[in-house]
Amino acid sequence: MARQWMLVTVWLLLCVNVSLQDETCSSPSVTSNMYTTTDGMIVSDVAFIVELSVTCQNGAKDLSLYAVINGVTVPVVKSLDNNKYQFSWTQDPKNVQSGEQTLRIYDEEGFSALRKVQRSGEDTSNIKPLFTVTINHPGTYQGPWVQSELVAVVTALILWYVAYSTKLKIQL
After folding, report:
1. Is residue 77 part of a domain?
2. Which residue in 35, 69, 145, 149 could disulfide with 49, CB within 3.0 to 4.6 Å?
3. Which residues does UniProt call coiled coil (predicted)?
4. 59 Cα distance to chain centroid
């Protein structure tokens, strides 16, 4: 009798273990949309929002994904829509570079390998991401090169000089 209970317990543990494991995605097909703040005059930080649509060849769903942005890991959140994920981050406008940037996206297995390598102090470029996403930031507007007040003062001084020199010529 004890042996039967032991077999049932082992069988239940195996079933629970299999059901709790995340699926791995093979040959992911990814489409991405990106939004970024471009007006640096009115914000203190530039926001980046990336939305991904991930379809796996093997039909895996509910993936746990992580994005690595400038060496910082950000969790990727699954939306209520099927196979859509989203992540975001902010940066100081002075530190944001315009142009293309490649972001590495890892699944649970790749992320644990990445963390292991980071803890040991080794090079993380050898860890292959599940997929990469390329975003393009057009740049952040920091305001005009010349302030309008300066243009008004210089114009007023030029007009005053022209008027004053014309008055002097007429008086002579």
Report:
1. yes
2. 35
3. none
4. 26
Report whether 44 contacts 95 (CB < 8 A).
no
For residues 31 and 87, what is the distance between their CA atoms, to the nearest angstrom?
Answer: 14
Rounded Cα distance, 23 and 7, in Å = 26
- Residue 81 confidence (pLDDT): 74
User: For residue 44, what are the domain limits?
Assistant: 25-165
Cα(12)–Cα(61) distance, integer angstroms = 24
pTM of the model: 0.68
- Give residue 9's pLDDT: 57
- In the chain (172 residues long), the average pLDDT of successive 10-residue segments reads 56 47 77 85 84 88 89 89 88 85 92 91 87 87 80 92 90 78
Quickly list H helices, 28-87: none
Longest CA span, the chain: 127
As a whole number of angstroms, the distance between CA 83 and CA 63 comes to: 9
The answer to whether residue 30 is domain-embedded is yes
* Burial tier of 88 (Cβ tally within 10 Å: 0-12, 13-18, 19+): middle
Tell me the CATH number at 29.
2.60.40
